[in-house]
Amino acid sequence: MAEVATWNFQVNGQKEEVQTIPLVSTCNNETLVNDKIAPGTDGSFNIIVDATGSEVGINYHITFTKESTKPTNLKFIYDNQEYSSISELGNILSGTINAKDEDKKRTLTIYWQWPYETGNSESEIANNDKIDTQNAQDIATYTFNVIVSGTQVVPQA
Asked: Are 148 and 9 in contact (CB under 8 A)?
């Protein structure tokens, strides 16, 4: 008689694997006007991958899709590395939760910031301020989908 291993995989506490993230909902700055991100704002969000209760190992991979227009100077930070796009960050967000791991939950914290007055010279700062101002006027919201896929680790015979 064969027994079947239990499989459990959740993302941010839910069975669904696709979620939309509006950055305004992750903002740490209380100075927002009209619920919009702007130069000088920042924030963070967590992606929680949970295999608690699973009796098999899980390989997970995170990708980002359906990105709306991003402010030019907005950047993402994960594991002390800076990324200029969310899709670039998605290329490195993967890992394994082993069947024998005591803690089967992984919390990936992604920080973002839209720096204010960036550049190394007065002319570069002025040019970046123009870009930031135009982005703030043109971009009503900035959102993207997070897709987390999980596959069973193939047991070694």
From this structure: no
